[in-house]
Design brief:
Strand content of chain A: 15-25%
Shape of chain A: globular
Helix content of chain A: 25-40%
Structural class of chain B: mainly alpha
Oligomer: heterodimer
Largest interface: A-B, 41 and 37 residues
Helix content of chain B: over 70%
CATH class of the domain at 14-100 and 170-246 in chain A: Alpha Beta
Distance between the termini of chain A: 27 Å
Radius of gyration of chain B: 22 Å
Number of helices of chain B: 15
CATH topology of the domain at 14-100 and 170-246 in chain A: Rossmann fold
Radius of gyration of chain A: 19 Å
Order of helices and strands of chain B: HHHHHHHEHHHHHEHHH
Strand order of the largest sheet of chain A: 6-9-10-3-11-12
CATH architecture of the domain at 14-100 and 170-246 in chain A: 3-Layer(aba) Sandwich
Strand content of chain B: under 5%
Shape of chain B: globular
Chain lengths: ~270, ~350
């Protein structure tokens, strides 16, 4: 396997090794190694049921692996829930779960951690601080007083990302952040991700859009039925190159000729 | 009516102009309802009703009658304040009417033997137990709040009937709470209603508890992920609701000098109608005390005006039911437009 070097404990970043996970009889992950370093954007790709979301959820503390190690900046960790992982600097942006539609941008930004003085919520400070945070990421909204439901999909995504980033995570996991977006909005989201990389945040990008992988990721890890099929630098990589790994069993000798076969592997995602 | 996407993005004043590549905002028609603030519409409705009844019922626009209107809605208003807070978190308390009856009965029957202080304390204790029962079923047993409180509505009513055995319980010397007029000839319950409404408006706007109730009602999963202890806040909401219906029960006892198994019947309909009319969303996330107060006043003015116009009082109940359905329908329209 190509990723044996990541067992080196002194490497900064988050390193998972030998991750195994089963749901009843289904082996969703069969000993997966995965790593993301500060300031690195790693694509996590694979067919439906390959184990992308399962791996991401394990990293984010939403699932506990049956076996395997999680090492953060040289120290072995285990998470019992999402808040645990969050406290260790790993934050996952859950699709559609990130925002409260009825609350305005600032309320969303501070939901669950509303700043108070003498028990009184500091609305004005919240709005100023939210605006400042958005500006840092070059996200432009006309007002932080609009309910989030009136924003466009791209703006919502930006707000959700900005909120996640405000916790200063080591690693931010994005699950299909551009899937529901139009072309221009998707580009804006990718621009935001580039800015996060410049801030030394490690990004894990789960996506089906191979062009996004090529344009933004430094590295891509391809999963195939719970195994790592490849861990590649995106330099000189082509869409066809990635797709070949996505559809090819790494333990088989040669590529599967008939790609239209029905996938009988039960899906472990969601 | 078709407008270009750009123009249609936010065609109304007070709204915004989005540009982040947000040209993709898909809006196919005007979106007036979310932008025109709910309270403004209600204020207009209230003003129209005022003008109409002032013209058609000579006695309507007198100080005494206006006080009567507020007096008539103050018991419901005391309950509607925490009711709004609960609905903002997506929870409905339908047990308020029978809860008021039960706590009134407890107070009346105990104070006959042990004195008023004991009676009041017991009523508060029983009220909190009622609230705890609602909260337990909703948060621990995960029973939907409407079903829970529909059940406890029956339970509290039955318990009250068991205590009184269908008779009315009378109380002497407990008049002031419901009847005293400490200032400007305005009855004490009006002040209690106004005070509690202001208190809850401040709580909902300026405390973490209030803000987090909005988050819970808007997106429970997001609230959980943000570390909000939703269940405990909902428990607190139900306890506040139970304290409010206890106070209402005590006011009833004071006003009537007695309590019967009919006391408080239909109160939940009045309260819920006022809250929904006030712009709170049935599914949570939206609602304000200001809106609820306007909703209460609209119901109060309609009821009062119909009486002054000599319309059979039974029509009030019909109108109230129709208003409830109308208010929910309006909420659906708002919701559909907001989703666009």
């Amino acid at each position: 396997m190509m990723s044996s070097k990541i067992d080196n404990d002194v490497t900064p970043g988050v390193h998972l090794s030998g991750i195994e996970m089963s749901f009843n009889a289904v082996r969703a992950l069969k000993g997966v190694d995965f790593s993301v370093r500060p300031g690195e954007v790693v694509g996590l790709v694979g067919d439906n049921g390959a184990g992308k979301s399962t791996l991401a959820k394990i990293m984010a503390g939403a699932l506990r692996p049956d076996r395997g190690r999680i090492v953060i900046d040289g120290t072995a960790r285990s998470f019992s829930n999402v808040r645990d992982a969050h406290g260790q600097g790993i934050t996952m942006l859950f699709q559609d779960l990130a925002l409260c539609d009825d609350l305005n941008v600032a309320d969303n930004f501070f939901v669950g951690r509303e700043p108070t003085r003498f028990g009184i919520v500091r609305h004005r400070w919240m709005h100023a601080e939210t605006r400042r945070n958005l500006e840092t990421l070059d996200i432009r909204l006309p007002s932080t007083r609009v309910p989030v439901r009136l924003l466009s999909g791209g703006q919502r995504q930006s707000v959700a990302i900005a909120r996640a980033v405000s916790f200063s995570p080591r690693v931010l996991i994005l699950d299909e952040p551009t899937a529901a977006l139009g072309v221009r909005q998707a580009k804006a989201t990718l621009d935001t991700i580039r800015r996060l990389r410049a801030n030394r945040i490690g990004i894990v990008l789960i996506t089906h859009r191979m062009n996004d992988v090529l344009s933004i990721c430094d590295r891509v890890t391809v999963l195939y039925e719970g195994k790592v099929a490849a861990d590649l630098s995106t330099k000189d990589l082509t869409v066809e190159g990635i797709v070949r790994y996505i559809v090819t069993d790494p333990d088989a000798d040669r590529p599967i000729a008939d790609q239209s076969r029905t996938d009988t592997q039960p899906t472990a995602e969601r | 009516m078709s407008i270009s996407k750009r123009d249609a993005t936010f065609p109304v004043p007070g709204a915004l102009n989005i540009d982040d590549g947000g040209g993709e905002v898909s809006v196919t028609g005007p979106r007036p309802l979310p932008a025109i603030s709910g309270p403004a519409v209600l204020a207009v409705v209230l003003a129209v009703l005022f003008v109409y009844f002032s013209i058609s019922a000579p006695y309507f626009l007198t100080a005494n009658n206006l006080i009567n209107i507020v007096y008539a809605v103050s018991v419901a208003g005391i309950i509607a304040a925490p009711g709004t807070l609960l609905l903002v978190a997506g929870q409905l308390d339908l047990s308020v009417g029978s809860g008021a009856m039960l706590t009134g009965v407890v107070m009346a029957s105990l104070s006959a033997r042990y004195g008023i202080a004991v009676g009041v304390l017991a009523a508060v204790g029983v009220g909190l137990l009622c609230g705890a029962l609602n909260a337990f079923a909703v948060t621990a047993l995960r029973v939907n709040a409407i079903i829970t409180t529909l059940g406890t509505l029956a339970i509290f009513q039955g318990a009250g009937l068991l205590i009184t055995e269908g008779q009315s319980a009378t109380v002497d010397g407990f008049d002031p709470l419901g009847n005293a007029r400490p200032l400007l000839n305005i009855p004490l319950p009006c002040f209690l209603f106004i005070g509690i409404a202001i208190l809850f408006a401040l709580v909902m706007k300026f405390t973490r508890f209030g803000r987090q109730m909005y988050a819970i009602g808007s997106n429970r999963l997001a609230a959980d992920l943000a570390g909000i202890r939703a269940d405990w806040l909902i428990v607190l909401g139900f306890l506040l609701s139970s304290l409010a219906f206890t106070l209402s029960g005590l006011i009833y006892v004071s006003q009537l000098g007695a309590t019967t198994s009919n006391t408080g019947a239909g109160l939940e309909l009045f309260v819920v109608t006022a809250i929904i009319l006030g712009g709170a969303s049935l599914t949570g996330g939206r609602g304000t005390i200001a809106g609820t107060v306007l909703g209460l006043l609209i119901l109060g003015v309609i009821g009062n005006g119909l009486v002054l116009l000599n319309v059979q009082p039974y029509w009030q109940t019909v109108v109230r039911g129709a208003l409830l359905i109308g208010a929910v329908a309006l909420d659906q329209v708002r919701r559909r437009q907001a989703r666009a």
